[in-house]
Known about the structure:
alpha/beta; Rossmann fold; Alpha-Beta Plaits; 2 domains; 7-stranded parallel sheet; 4-stranded antiparallel sheet; 9 helices
Amino acid sequence: MTRSLFAKGPWSRARTLLATPDRRILIGLDLDGTLAPLAPRPELARVPGPTLRAIRRAAQAPGITIAILSARPVNDLRRLLPVRGLMRIGQYGLEGPLAPVVATRTRLRRRCARVTRALRTRICAVPGALLEPKGLTVAVHSRGVKGSPARRALFRAVRSVAASEAREQGFVTMPGAEIVDFVPRGQDKGRPLRALRARLRPDAVFYFGDSDGDEPAFRALGRADFPVRVGRGETRARFRVAGLGSVTRFLVAVTALRAGPA
């Protein structure tokens, strides 16, 4: 059963952790739909000012590490979150401090290019569909596709590539909110989150995400942690918040609780 993070029981436990100075806390955050409202096109997304200020302050709080785990490239994370002290983990962990070695990335770029070419020949025929090559992964956006026939055509094209060129290149689909990412098999948000935990050894981990692409991260967490689904949707997360405003509320609370009593 999923409970509100701000319900009396869960929030009491979370407050105690956050208010205890010697407890090291890792906070993982998805970006689109969690920190930034979903936009018609990826380049139009923006993190609201109050959220940006809340992240900036929380990232400087003692004993707090904030990691952004996103499907976006790291360059997008730098542009959208110009905040010191953040760990920026892009493309499901393929970019950033947990990225694989250069030889592996080079091989994945070649394979991703082949998947991208296969998608381009099919996706361009669907009005409103958007193909977003990201180098190591590639995304198909369906937000601009109007009407059932066009959406069915797009999903047929995605399934066709997933069953042919993507499978041959070792790529699988990762669904999100009006988006399907093609990523190397075995690469999901749970993988970098587990690696961060092993590296940082925090006393507790909070992870906030809004889509099915965040479910592997929720599953990577233990009973003492706080997997938090943002918004609606079926989830394995034990906790939920209503939306982006609630994520900002949490970050403001982190700063206040680490500061201790006035």
